Amino acid sequence: MVEPVLAARxxxxxxxxxAAVDGVSLDLAPNRIxxxxxxxxxxxxxxxxxxxxxxxxxxxxVMFEDIEIAGMNPARIARLGIARSYQxxxxxxxxxxxxxxxxxxxxxxxxxxxxxRSAGAERDLDEAARHALRLVGLGMGGRxxxxxxxxxxxxxxxxxxxxxxxxxxLLDEPLSGMGAAESRRMTRLIKRLAKDRAILLVEHDMDxxxxxxxxxxxxxxxxxxxxxxxxxxRKSRAVRKAYxxxxx
Amino acid sequence: xxxxxxxxxVLLALALIALIVFPLLGAKFYLQLFAKIMIMAxxxxxxxxxxxxxxxxxxxxxxxxxxxxxxxWWLSPQYAAANFWLTLPAAMAAAALAALAIGLLVLRSxxxxxxxxxxxxxxxxxxxxxxxxxxxxxxxxxxxxxxAAFLFDLDGAAHFYYLALxxxxxxxxxxxxxxxxxxGRALLGIKSNETRMRSLGYSTFGYKLAAFALAGSLAGLAGxxxxxxxxxxxxxxxxxRLSGLALMMVILGGMGTLYGPIxxxxxxxxxxxxxxxxxxxWLLPLGIFxxxxxxxxxxxxxxxxxxxxxxxG
Lengths: 248, 313
Prior knowledge:
- The complex is a heterodimer.
- Chain A is built from 9 helices and 10 strands.
- Chain A is α/β, with parallel strands linked by helices.
- Chain A has 2 domains: about 1-80 and about 165-250, 3-Layer(aba) Sandwich (Rossmann fold); about 90-165, no CATH class.
- The mean pLDDT of chain A is about 90.
- Chain B has helices at about 10-25, 30-55, 60-75, 85-105, 110-130, 155-180, 180-190, 195-200, 205-230, 240-255, 260-280, 285-295, 300-310, and strands at about 140, 230-235.
- The mean pLDDT of chain B is about 90.
- At the A-B interface, α2 and α3 of A face α7, α8 and α9 of B.
């Protein structure tokens, strides 16, 4: 078994009396796609928020390589190399797609003082931004982000996470609101991105999930119902009963 | 990206030349008035760094203006001149330190709450100065002898005018350069979408705090010059009226432009001056003017120039 890049143990988050995430453990292996599925309200997005630091866990631990990151703020977690995308498009709408990516690339290159060097001189940032745009197939990115189509904004969202050269990508429903063709393209892209990083994929599109995921975790009401290879999950009686219904 | 063919630098250079030759033609009264306007422009530009670039609408920026002014009084011997080259940096440092301390507290809030807490802090200074015997209470205090600067004479209207002009041009240049750096880009990103900046890995608090401290020290510079010009410092320099006036200059001129607040300062003060000469009820036409300007020029007066440049502006 390979050492996991990111390992969550007994992760929990309570909102008042509600346990949105309740004792979740999972391992992200390098260069693998680990999908998390489950009905609405299962706590999938809360899980992503706990891993990215946007929410502080009520209990449990998250190890990234040898570092405990549970409770760290999102900026520090991102600088360690864990990037996330959002279920709802979350970009700098008034900036060009290129500027969105360049700002992302800048995030990991030194802190505040580094920032006082002249912006014009930073060719490596421009290069990193262009590289990220090329990876997702957005071209030169000269257009204003707010004017892009929904699918393109989703691509941009991914490009921004790539521009910070993450070791772990947390993707929260990257296919939501996409047409069939766009969706296929994005699925291929995610598969390709897993070649050199670990990916956590929260997604509702079952065809996409079962076609690209290496491992699957099924969540129901904040708890892990089952974890395994796609084939095992498909066969699992508990999963079928709780979630997949007659489909699988 | 496409090169931005802009008339902005040309216009600014022309304005600078006009302001340089102005003392050769203008009467002493106007030299003093223009010096006052340029001091206000420094103040308004420092606020524009917060409002227009970091998205921090402060309604208490006068706190740091007042600190700069009171610092000159405090550091001045009663019947001798203070050293300009020592007291000015000291005043700016004091304002920056105060901004750092206050920023640590207020920058945890945002939006309307930020407006209210910054206002509250400035009013705290106002009431403290009003109630304090040491600071002269509501009557204020006097700087009897203007600071000495070796190279020039702050008592001379023309010299002081050029000092104010240098402060304004220097502030503009400093902030313009800062906005061009990676730090400046990050500030704009924070203004646009702070959550996203954090999830990308920016510790946004430090970025905002640095901007708040720098804006505070520049406001301190303006306050110091105000005290040096009039030799009189009172608690109104901490007051919400002054904070509001600067905010109006920024909005009227066009926020996030730096030269907009300069235009705003000139238009607002000159208009105030002309209207108050013409009628006792000058606040009414001034108010109407501001309302119309905000309604019809959402990007401020400087937006007019950009509109004239065409759709790319």
